[in-house]
Amino acid sequence: MVSTSSTTRDEDATAGVRPTTDDGSTPRPGSRVQGRRVWSMLALVAGAAVFLFPFYYMIVGSLQAKPDTSIKGAIPAGGLTLHNYADINSRVNLVQSLVNSGIFTGGVVLMTMVFGVLAGYALARLRFRGRGALFGVMLLVQIVPFQLLIIPIYVLIVRTYGLADSYLGMIAPFAINSAAVFVFRQFFLQLPDDLFAAAALDGASELRILWSIALPLVRPAMLTVLLITFIGPWNEFLWPFLVTKDQGLQPLAVTLANYISNIAGRATNPAGAILAGAVVLAAPAVALFVVFQKHFAGSELSSGVKG
């Protein structure tokens, strides 16, 4: 049986009358949705705070006049100063180390882009015998850790080619990135075949097709490769440390590692000086990600628009 109250509510709803609850108040259907949005927003804010807290602690710690490695150090009580940056810069050349990191990382990114685009285009668009086997070997290379190959690569680069104490010796082992080749290959495979067929009928060469047609369409892939390639060499310290002992050529990551091991104990505020070096190392990477993340999102959106 249907109760009288529920029948009355159905008739009111059919007649356009707002239903009421048992206490006489009017229910609001959007209140639950709004409440969920509020809780979701609070959860996101809490997650962002947890994620950003180490960066905040690193910046605040680098500006503290007195060392405080406890959790209370997150709230500076003794004032802020740039003395830690001056202290570490007086012991190591931060500017020269940043320039070395820029040359090392820029060379790796440039060569990764060039070889990644060429190899990805060949694996995606050219037809030749053994293409599938070559792609399979490339995928197998990704599961081999770089640390496992570091000794034979060191012998090859330093002793065979004589590239010790040089930028090229640091860049060469990272020049070809199999992950970048894979990303470019997948993007080239998604492009319509009609574009390449029409260009070939017009007499365009493969390099002309790659430069004029393929590259403008794979900008999201280029930005993706740029971001994932930059972080590795920028933070790399083991390989540059092995290749060069010349402090005038060492990147910032190697310089900071040497500073922490040998010099930090003699600083006025060792923890603050170390955090100051970490801020200098992290700032360019964060800035690059913020700038190119915006362009990457825009490219992704524009690539899905037809017309």
Protein model, in words:
The chain is mainly α and 307 residues long. Helices cover 72% and strands 0% of the residues. The chain contains 14 helices and no strands. The protein has helices spanning 4-15, 29-62, 83-91, 94-125, 131-141, 146-160, 167-171, 178-190, 193-201, 206-217, 219-235, 238-243, 252-263, 270-303. The longest helix has 34 residues, at 29-62. 22% of the residues are buried.
Radius of gyration: 29 Å
What's the story with the biggest beta sheet? none
Give the topology string: H per helix, E per strand. HHHHHHHHHHHHHH
* Number of distinct beta strands: 0
What is the subunit organization of this protein? single chain
β-strand amount: under 5%
What's the shape?
Answer: flat
Q: Specify the number of helices.
A: 14
Helical fraction equals: over 70%
Kindly name the structural category. mainly alpha
Mean pLDDT figure: 79
**Can you tell me the residue ranges where pLDDT is under 50 for at least 5 consecutive residues?**
9-16, 298-307
How far from one another are the termini? 59 Å
